Amino acid sequence: MTTTVPTDTRRAHALLGVDGLTVRFHLRGAVVHAVTDLSLTLHPGELLAVVGESGCGKSVLAHALLGLLPRNATVTGRAHLHPPDGHPVDLIDAGERHLTRHVRGRAVGLVPQSPATALTPVRSGRRLLEETLRAHGHTRRAAPAAADRIAADVGLDPGDLDRYPHELSGGMAQRLATALALAPDPPLLLADEPTTGLDRPLVDHTLDLLRRRCDTGAAVLLITHDLTAARRVADTVAVMYASRIVEHRPTAALFDAPAHPYTAGLLDALPDRAFTPVPGHPPMLTDLPDGCAFAPRCPRATDACHIPPRLLPDGAGRVACHHRLTPGAPA
Amino acid sequence: MTDLARPPATTPARTHPPTRVRAGRLGAGVAVGVLAAAVAACLLAPLLWPLDQSAVDLARTRLAPSPDHLAGTDDLGRDVALRSLYGLRVSLLVGAVAAGVATVVGGLVGAVAGTLGGRLDRALMRVVDTVAALPHLLLGIFVVAMLRPGLGAVIASIGLTHWLSTARIVRSELLSLRTRPFVDAAISGGASRTRVLTRHLLPHVLPRLALATTLMVPHAVWHETALSFLGLGLPPHLASIGNMINDGQRSLLTGAWWASIVPGLLLVAVTLALAVLTGRWRDRLDPRVRAELHL
Amino acid sequence: MTVTTDDTVHGAAAGGLAARRVTVAYGRQRVLDRVDLHIAPGETVGLRGLSGSGKSTLARVLALLHAPDSGHVTIDGHPVGGARHRLPAALRTRVAILFQSPRSATDPRLSLADLIAEPLRATGASRDQASARTADLADLVGLTPDLLARRPHAVSDGQLQRACLARALVHRPDYLLCDEATAMLDASTQAHVAAVVTDYQRRSSAGVLLITHDPALMSRWATRVVDLPTP
């Protein structure tokens, strides 16, 4: 388990290095600042959770990494993927054909948000799984045994594998979708709100699956609005606010001693803490303030906040704030 | 992986739109051009062309295309190019009105079945199934035979055979909309049955209905052509594409191919252009093709 | 917080929204089997149960949107016959429901302002009355005028759920049913929604049904918790 947020010295061994990723959507008469100057590194065996309120841009991050953005989007920056047994690829520059053949599914797996709609309804779970396995190098004879093994891995009974997606409960569908994402053994898994709508035992089960995947060497980028889920499984947590990462640090440190006032506010909103909302409203992504985007809601804001704070190292993590809460290492 | 390899509902952000999109735009451009030219020619032909389309000139029958007669003349010496434009006018008019009739009939049946449901729905749908089981053209011929021949009979024949698909579309749209939580929310908020229908259900159905109507126009034009070709459609003196192809087949054996090929090609070009444009429109309505912004 | 599986202790008290031996089946599958539940004015009943135990169906039955196959719903001790349009609007609007997914619970063609005003317009309020009340409610749930002019696709889930909450409160319901209403929301929006509901409840002594998978939220918000057995 990683205990500190990786710094540049370890970037050489990183599986994914995102650098200055910026995504803009061009609408009629407005530009949506969906992701701004986002940098992060992800190592094999690391589970990074990106949390934030709905509409902060965290989901766009996952779509950008898979090249699945609508036509009105422009993407700048770099996202280098270094698969252990393949050529490095820049996910931003790679063409559609390269992404389809070598990246999606193979190098980067996606655990979808709503498994019920992500599964082809006319094929049984077994056929879906065997097709996926054979598309990724298993022979016709080896596929059935491998399918059983992977199903068992995710806690799916081999008998349930013969059912069609509509015959599966929400939890079984989620396990099947996860099995499909895991089947090609991708070194990087993106999980975009994988637990929405599941009840607690299934949430925990899905999260534990992701955690086990990390422990066997893959890296997972978990995108979620659920702080409790992030706390349960993540090594490090990145908090996004108004298209930027405002704080990123090891999970325990983030939950025990948040440095950014927004993180602190978000944690205070948890029902087992103060249960009070962060005052004010998040800014429109089409109309972000010039300085710190959180300043209008921030109890500690001063004139200094008109200058946008940079994401700088702070103890074991990174924070973008002029008035951080804990006396961390000097910037 | 199934969910990743799906056709890109969202396409990559970077450079230019993919080839498929550019080809689609080109096709739509050509279609718009063809339609605009055909409609303009239909409307302006009587003004610009000094000839009378029905003028019989037995001295100048079956003339090959020439500067005087761009598409030659038929076996009665009538100008084929001009007559084709008049024919297209009639065919498009019949097609549009018949599609309108079919939409009204189908829309009403579908709306009643989809809104009231229950036994009435089952009865109406069995009627639809029964009518759909009969061959369209045979049924159309039967309708024409029952009525006095002419424009009205042809429109009735097409309208009464083509409403089935519209009824099915409207009914199924309404049935799936009725179970959506936003309809629950409207009912819970106190909306009456009528208000739910007019304010929450129909506005969602209307675009689909308009699309179905437009897609039906080429179909109706071909149906009219088939009836006229069989001699059951419009009276022979009225220029329609079907009549012309029917008349022209007599000249085919004598080598005067232009008398039926020219109106035929015109019909193919115009209906194809209509189909291409409505196809584009349908793609835009389809939420999977429409690029949506998820934040 | 007390945990009870048997609801009869609350009996058919004069006030309250109640399910009495409610059974619902889809085809052969029984989703609810003789379920009793009572929500008294002013209390927040937490409803717990596994996926597939029929929590959402029970909420729809209580919201008068689904007629049970047997058993019935009572409001203030009076049995309610039928559901949906069989009931007068004045009765339907006494119970409001907030769904998990605001996306599917809103008509994509209407602006947020129209969404909130729609129940008022549907029951005969004038445009001016409706817009005045919409402005008040928007303020209450934390929607800016700029957001009110937008359509659902141009706002986030959190903002849309706030609009749904405003719409649910527009008729000042006596009962509000929250079916996983905050499951898709971030912690801050969830806390805000809970605060708005609790505040409304204090002023109007409405009864609230809270369906949630989150034990922390349940123990913080509910005043009483009921377990729904899997049939």
Automatic annotation (TrEMBL), chain A:
Alphabetical UniProt keywords: ATP-binding, Cell inner membrane, Cell membrane, Membrane, Nucleotide-binding, Translocase, Transport
Top-level taxon of origin: Bacteria
- Topology with regard to the membrane? Peripheral membrane protein
Gene Ontology terms: biological process? peptide transport
Please give one Gene Ontology molecular function term for this protein: ATP binding
* Cited Gene3D superfamilies: P-loop containing nucleotide triphosphate hydrolases (3.40.50.300)
Localized where?
Cell membrane
Upper lineage: Bacteria, Bacillati, Actinomycetota, Actinomycetes, Micromonosporales
Do you know which InterPro entries this protein is assigned to?
Answer: AAA+_ATPase, ABC_Ni/Peptide_Import, ABC_transporter-like_ATP-bd, Oligopep_ABC_C, P-loop_NTPase
Q: Which GO terms describe its cellular component?
A: plasma membrane
This chain's protein is named Peptide/nickel transport system ATP-binding protein
Q: Give the family, as the similarity comment puts it.
A: Belongs to the ABC transporter superfamily.
Question: Which residues belong to any copy of the ABC transporter domain?
Answer: 16-267
Matches recorded under Pfam families:
ABC_tran, oligo_HPY
TrEMBL record, chain B:
A Pfam family cross-referenced in the UniProt record is BPD_transp_1
ABC transmembrane type-1 domain location: 88-278
Q: PROSITE patterns, from UniProt? A: ABC_TM1 (PS50928)
| Entry-linked InterPro entries | BP-dependent_transpt_permease, MetI-like, MetI-like_sf
Low complexity: bias regions: 1-16
The protein's predominant localisation is membrane
Q: Where are the transmembrane segments?
A: 26-49, 92-116, 256-278
> What is the membrane topology here?
Multi-pass membrane protein
Localization recorded for this chain is: Cell membrane
Q: Name one GO biological process term.
A: transmembrane transport
Give UniProt keywords alphabetically. Cell membrane, Membrane, Transmembrane, Transmembrane helix, Transport
Query: What PANTHER family does the annotation carry?
Result: ABC TRANSPORTER (PTHR43386:SF23), OLIGOPEPTIDE TRANSPORT SYSTEM PERMEASE PROTEIN APPC (PTHR43386)
Family that this chain belongs to? Belongs to the binding-protein-dependent transport system permease family.
This protein's name: Peptide/nickel transport system permease protein
TrEMBL record, chain C:
CDD domains in the cross-refs = ABC_NikE_OppD_transporters (cd03257)
Keywords noted in UniProt: ATP-binding, Nucleotide-binding, Transport
Where on the tree of life does the source sit, at the highest rank? Bacteria
Q: Which GO terms describe its biological process?
A: transmembrane transport
Give one GO term, molecular function aspect: ATP hydrolysis activity
Report the residue ranges that make up the ABC transporter domain in this protein.
Answer: 17-230
Pfam families given for it?
ABC_tran
Q: Which family does it belong to?
A: Belongs to the ABC transporter superfamily.
Under PANTHER family, the record lists: D,D-DIPEPTIDE TRANSPORT ATP-BINDING PROTEIN DDPF-RELATED, TRANSPORT ATP-BINDING PROTEIN
Q: What is this protein called?
A: Peptide/nickel transport system ATP-binding protein
Q: Which organism is it from?
A: Micromonospora haikouensis
Q: What is the lineage of its organism?
A: Bacteria, Bacillati, Actinomycetota, Actinomycetes, Micromonosporales
